[in-house]
Amino acid sequence: MASLEKILDQISGYVWGVPLLVLLFGTHIFLTFRLGFIQKYTFTAIRMSFTRSKEGAGEISHFGALVTALAATIGTGNIVGVATAVAAGGPGAVLWMWLTGVFGIATKYAEAVLSVKYRTVAEDGTVSGGPMYVLEKAMKMKWLAVLFALFTSVAAFGIGNMVQANSIAVMVQHNFNISPWITGSVITVITAIVIIGGISSIAKVCEYLVPFMAIFYVLGCVVLLVIRHETIMDTIQLIISSAFSGQAAIGGFAGAGVREAMRFGIARGLFSNESGLGSAPIVAAAAQTKHPVKQALISSTGTFWDTVVVCLATGIVVVNSGMWQSGLKGAELTSAAFTEVPYIGNAVLTFGLLTFVFSTILGWSYYGEKAIEYLFGKKLIMPYRWLWVAAVMVGSVASLQAVWTFADIANGLMALPNLVSLIVLSPVVAAETKDYFSRPKAER
Questions:
Q1: Residue 120's beta-bridge partner residues?
Q2: Going by C-beta distance under 8 Å and a sequence separation of 6 or more, which residues neighbour residue 319?
Q3: Other beta carbons within 10 Å of 381
Q4: Do residues 367 and 359 touch, judged by C-beta distance below 8 A?
Q5: Quick one: which of 93, 151, 16, 15 has its CA closest to 319?
Q6: How far apart are CA 330 and CA 175, in angstroms?
């Protein structure tokens, strides 16, 4: 088992190495300029996202599609992953992570445009879409579409299910001394109640859960920063200066170089917001919308909320605490940074992790379901849902390092066929964008 884990770690290192990170971030920048800095419509899109109007084909509202995607996107990476980036890359990693969010908005937008444009609507009204349909219908590359769906189904059970369930069980056992069997049973039952009803049921739960959990967590971070307000300006200056100089302005930290700050900040930002991986557009395609651009604008705000807001809040708290200089890493650093403020800090961290992880299980269940449906048809949808529920229980009580790494590899491999379609079909995205904004506002 140890040998297998070592081999998988090496493969994961290659998959998530510099070439993929450069390709992902490069695509962000390319699409930003190709689409005339589409980010300028972000706040307009945020206002649009709160409308629940039913227009055009689809199964859920604009808002329902957004929060379901956010449910899958906002997870442990927004808390533990940010601390990992700071520990490895220094405070400057926070700024580079934030920049991946800003530029990643364009990629998330382009993904959604294509997925809505090339989606399929069945006779019963159910909608299917995502990069696999784009690859098959627009690029005539069925084999690449099958590969994407295969990677998605594998990644879903790992990153989106068992690893998340394990994170909840371990944390609850550590903080409250409750057996993983008990935690696993509760999470399994709740998951079953939600996902057996399909995307409509998932979206309905996410519409309430996601805004509440995100607002509570960000406000909690703000409270922690207010308590330590005397060092906030120094913290912000440190983050900015370290991003370009690689040297810490406070304390005795030797400092990570600029390259390390960029590497770990960009990697964690890309992994957190999933822009370019091809997951979020799967649910964007289910939205009720009369034009691909309208839903794409709304979907692109997911990257804004995930990285520009939530990851930034975590990053500032971690750096402001000063604990990043302690030598701690990952979850230990996150815990130390938050629990430095008694009671309040632990409550914010515990609630954030519990809700973020559970929402990820819900959101990724739909991604995996649509991948399975693409590969094998609708007949396997209900067996898949029950298998998903069972996997939650297994993940809660099992050791999953090899599963995590294998799913991590599949998650990275999802990006390759998706990025090919984004770059090749960027003229289509540009044409759809031009068509939408050339219309009178009343017709958009």
A1: 128
A2: 86, 91, 94, 235, 238, 239
A3: 15
A4: no
A5: 93
A6: 17
The neighbour count for residue 197, using CB atoms within 10 Å, is 14
| Both tokens assigned to 128 | 């299917």
Burial of residue 305 (CB within 10 Å: 0-12, 13-18, 19+) is buried
Neighbours of 4 (CB within 10 A): 12
Comparing C-alpha atoms, which of 16, 441, 363, 21 is closest to residue 202?
A: 363
Answer for the pair 80, 329: CB distance below 8 angstroms, yes or no. Answer: no
Q: Is the pLDDT of residue 424 over 80?
A: yes
- Is residue 138 within 8 Å of 354, Cβ to Cβ? no
pLDDT digits (tens, 9 = 90+) for 214-250: 999 998 899 889 988 899 999 999 899 888 876 543 4
Inter-residue contact 358 to 167 (CB < 8 Å):
no
Please report how the helices 163-176 and 381-397 are oriented relative to each other, as an axis angle in degrees rounded to 10. Answer: 40
Q: Token pair of 22, please?
A: 């450069």
Which residue spans within 169-305 are E strands per DSSP?
none
The more confident residue out of 60 and 112 is 112
Give the helix ranges, DSSP H, for 16-126.
18-34, 42-49, 62-73, 80-89, 92-117
> Given pLDDT bands bounded at 50, 70 and 90, which one contains residue 56?
low
Tell me the per-residue pLDDT of 35-46, one tens digit each, with 9 for 90 and over. Answer: 999 999 999 999
Closest listed residue to residue 81, CA positions, set 375, 396, 404, 322: 404
The answer to whether the predicted template modeling score (pTM) of the entire model surpasses 0.85 is yes
What pLDDT sits at residue 52? 60
Inform me whether the pLDDT recorded for 94 exceeds 70: yes
Share of the chain above pLDDT 70, in %: 94
Q: Per-residue pLDDT tens for 262-287?
A: 878 887 887 788 888 888 899 988 88
Q: Is residue 19's pLDDT more than 70?
A: yes
Rounded CA-CA distance 239/149 in Å is 39
Q: How would DSSP label each residue in 365-427?
A: HHHHHHHHHHHH-GGGHHHHHHHHHHHHHHHHHS--HHHHHHHHHHHHHHHHHHHHHHHHTHH
The DSSP H or E segment spanning 127 is: strand 127-128
